[in-house]
Amino acid sequence: MHNTMLKYTAGALLMLVTLMANAQKSRFSVVFPGTPNTVLDGRLLLIFAKSADKEPRFLVKDDYTSAQIFGMDVENWKPGIPRVFTGAEFGYPLRSLPDVPPGDYYVQAILHKYETFHRKDGHTVKMPMDRGEGQQWNLAPGNIYSKPVKITIGPKAKSPVNLTLDQEIPPIPEPEDTKYIKHIKIQSALLTEFWGRPMYLGAHVLLPEGWDTHPDVRFPLAIYHGHFPSDFGGFRTDPPDPNLKPEYSARFKLEGYNRIVQQEAYDFYKMWTGPDFPRVIAIEIQHPCPFYDDSYAVNSANVGPYGDAIMRELIPEIEKRFRGIGEGWARFTYGGSTGGWEALAVQVFYPDEFNGCYAACPDPVDFRAYTLVDLYKDKNAYHQQGDFGQVLRPGNRDYLGQITTTLQDANYYELALGTKSRSGQQYDIWEAVYSPVGPDGYPRRIWDKKTGEIDHKVAEYWRDNYDLTHIIRRDWATLGPKLQGKIHLYCGDMDNYFLNNAVYLAEDMLKGLDNPTFDGQVDYGDRAEHCWNGDHTQPNAISRLRYHRYFIPKWTDQVQQRAPKGADLRAWRY
To answer: What was the pLDDT predicted at 159?
Structure first.
């Protein structure tokens, strides 16, 4: 038995060494064509996929089903000069090129281009500028990529594999105005000054029925926060396309969910133009930044003064052009996830400028529950440590608690996509918004991206400036009279990202306030996942599509209790 085990172990080790040697022989050389004076900076990505159904660049995701990706930073890259992946580059889900097992793969390379910013604070940084796609590296116009090729890794592998970035992602056309939806884009003086180059803000504006036939009426403003919208979402003037091929939603286990989405959008159009729906102006803001598809709508040392730019430049321009009332009592905010955090944040940071917030499934509103991490007490974000053992923290679950990724893997995914908080993904944008600027001009890390060790000095900065529960509690003496009755929080108790944990802490704090009392609402959906909006009459698959039709009437009913004396509550209720 002993000799058999030794032979087995030796054989396994020999096979492992052989596999690693074979993988290490595989080198990937990438070049791009161009004129001699062309010089490029960016993140060069190499992607492996088993399937040929889609290009590899569309198969990368932050869970265990992801294609394999490796990344390297490139600076001053010139045409025809190869950049070579040899095995030292960081990867996800597998950490390095030698870990890729022998087999057949479809491989593709893409360069996510960076440009140089000379910021107002004196730092020079290289970042990806949004180009109309909402900070999506695999869709960004101007990014160059190679056609997928089939390769073999193994004893007979060809090395190096030569890839040429001879394809370019085309520009994205601007959306066109319609009777109900208008589009606005302005250059922000505040953001242009901060970033050292022209920076823009935009919005998709949904006009109320009768806006053109009631030229003397001024309207309240409903501000929907969320991720980068290509146009006003959830509004469709045509019935569902009868020729639309039904698509299955694995998340909701529904066949033809794309048809349901179109039907819901058409139903909202009929409600919006019907006789009983409140007449307000609804907007969806476009404010992508160099870090993400969305700025988080607050002022930030790394991202810039987006809060003031939206409040002092964009919103007044919208109200001027489209006859908004233009007073704080006649504005409210709502949104889910990123938009949920933003809705609460702008209500807290600009308490006189809004008369209600409806925050669904908000990003962590209390950093004692930063998903599953207590940033103030925990030493490590990725795992819980005992005297002899440790367990990795989950990063995503379904409504039954089944885990699809860990917190560590979600961050390793980001690290493969970009260093220095430049992945364009969730944890990096939180870090960019909440952190102080580091000595290199990029955000200070809240934790070491590889080890998960938390920097508690950075956490203190986060707490004092962006922990919304902490700020409301700390400043309630002055905020209380301005926020009473305005805060409404909603979250599924099986939120995919464990965001309900922070809402529990916020609820305990809010309900303990006095002088004045909170007088708002906190509500939970039983077994509801991410994006539940507070509607107990509908499953999450439907409620997540009904933010506009659910929150706008809710606010117009409640505003009568908080409007100042003499406010016009009748002219816009025709």
So the answer is: 78
